Amino acid sequence: MKRIACRCAVLASLAPLMAPPTALANLTVHPMRVAVEHQRGAQVRVYSQSAQTQYVQASVKRIVDPATDHETEVDIEPGQLDAIAVTPGKFALAGGGNRLVRVIPLNTVTEETAYRVYFEGVRGDADETSMPSEKGPAAQVGLSLIWGALVHVLPADPLADMRLEGTSLHNTGNLRLGVTQVEHCVTKTRCQSHDITHSVYPGGKLTLPFTAASGERVRVHYRLSHAGYRSHERELQP
Where in the chain are the domains? Predict the structure, then answer.
């Protein structure tokens, strides 16, 4: 199974375990996947799971070659014009509270583009000067939770389209196809179902576990990033 998903990473810096751990962040994010439509932003809410005030910083990365073996993430530097921006980029989160973060569309995309917005606990300016210094063998364990919310940016004129070519399903539209199932029908009543969970982005392809012959049909079940992720169906012929 290969699909692009939401991430939560735990980064720890361990010194001699002579003192209880000190958490720099304790938060959760919801939802972990949002769609940004043309001229319409999205919202992500960050929740505190700590009694202490935290400082949270958001960063944006563009996903290159999503849902493939070559998937990578590229940093979006502050001030760099890209498809989205996040505001606020850094904020204080009161103990037990929550904060709404907006994902704002900046530029129009010609095909669905994937980003990941990371939320990480950081030290506030006051912490740098007020943090007491440790003496002796005691040491702190720094623990930082980083949450990554997946953001799909949609084109102004969305089109879901596909075609069969040999053993491959090609995405010829400008939207991501969240394929969930493929049926190989040799007759109208004889179909073999294949459960496949795979995102196929515009210009990408999915290798099928069968080859459809002339006169047979292939029924593709898929979801799109908008409209509530409801199920769609398309029947194709080789």
Answer: 7-153, 162-236
